[in-house]
Design a protein that fits this description.
Largest sheet: 3 strands, mixed
Number of strands: 3
Mean pLDDT: 83
Structural class: mainly alpha
Strand order of the largest sheet: 1-2-3
Helix content: 55-70%
Number of helices: 10
Distance between the termini: 45 Å
Strand content: 5-15%
Length: about 170
């Protein structure tokens, strides 16, 4: 709201304030701005600045922003994509091949997978490790069998209903 108010009053000050935000805050602020403001920022930011924002975002948000950059300035989108880390390039390329109305466009590539023979504590430890690697937000985990066949998708907040030593296969009704 603050940045929106400033943009209406003084566009140059808006761009300066935005550029001076820490990168994580800049990326989150970008997502919260109305689309016309996002387009204005894309037009004034260079490919390096846009790549920094994209690198910071979770995969689904990064893909959405990349699509907007492509619609606004195709060359700048190609330049920004080339500056991203290889894993981030692959995430964005994978998710931008879906149309807006397809389920794939809503996907994230950040996942937590756990075997049904493991405990809740194992899942929490794995989540802590992934979070330390800056994996992003994980809302659910995928429980698989010993052959990596998906058995169940469990929302993270449902884990509080079980003790840390409980084994997934003991309480799952697949």
């Amino acid at each position: 709201d603050y940045l929106e108010r400033i943009k209406k009053e003084n566009e140059e000050e808006f761009f300066t304030l935005f550029k001076n935000l820490p990168i994580e805050k800049r990326a989150q602020t970008f997502l919260e701005l109305p689309t016309p403001f996002q387009v204005d920022l894309i037009e004034v930011q260079n490919a390096v600045e846009l790549a920094l924002i994209l690198e910071t975002l979770q995969s689904d948000n990064g893909a959405d922003v990349m699509q907007l950059i492509r619609k606004t300035d195709r060359q700048k989108s190609e330049d920004a994509l080339a500056l991203l880390s290889e894993p981030k390039q692959e995430e964005i390329e994978k998710l931008t091949h879906y149309e807006d109305d397809e389920a794939g466009s809503l996907m994230q590539t950040e996942v937590l997978k756990i075997k049904s023979s493991q405990s809740i504590a194992d899942a929490i430890n794995k989540l802590a490790y992934l979070k330390a690697q800056d994996i992003g937000r994980i809302e659910s985990l995928f429980v698989t069998d010993e052959h990596d066949k998906l058995l169940k998708n469990i929302f993270m907040d449902d884990l509080i209903l079980h003790g840390p030593q409980e084994i997934f296969s003991d309480f799952m009704d697949t």
